[in-house]
Amino acid sequence: MSNKPSDADISQTMRTGIQWYPNPCQSSLIVEINSPENQSLRLDIFDLSGRLVKEVHTELRSGANKLEVDTRSLSAGMYTLQVWNKGLLQHRARFSKQD
To answer: What is the dihedral of CA 57, 62, 63, 64, to 10 degrees?
Structure first.
């Protein structure tokens, strides 16, 4: 399965410049975002049943941003990361968590 979201689901604002690692992760997931401007951002993490298990609100500055998302409270398994900005889905990716 591809880690790339479909074009129909993603707005143009931040289509490029989002990376996440390591995959699989253990205690944290690093999300790197190249932002065209200072802006608010929301990261949502869903388990495979579609339940929201973590929500992170942050402020980005123009340019390169590196966010560390604490994943210690998540059980081992597969998750979906969604990146939201201005009410629009910017990126969607799957990652796995190991204990």
So the answer is: -20
**Mean pLDDT per segment of 10 residues, for the chain of length 99 residues?**
40 63 97 94 98 98 96 98 94 96
- Give pLDDT, residue 77: 98
Q: Domain limits at 19? A: 7-97
Measure the CA–CA gap between 11 and 26, rounded to whole angstroms.
30
With contact defined as beta carbons under 8 Å apart, do 18 and 43 qualify? no
Cα 98 to the center of its chain, rounded Å: 17
Our count of domains for the chain comes to 1
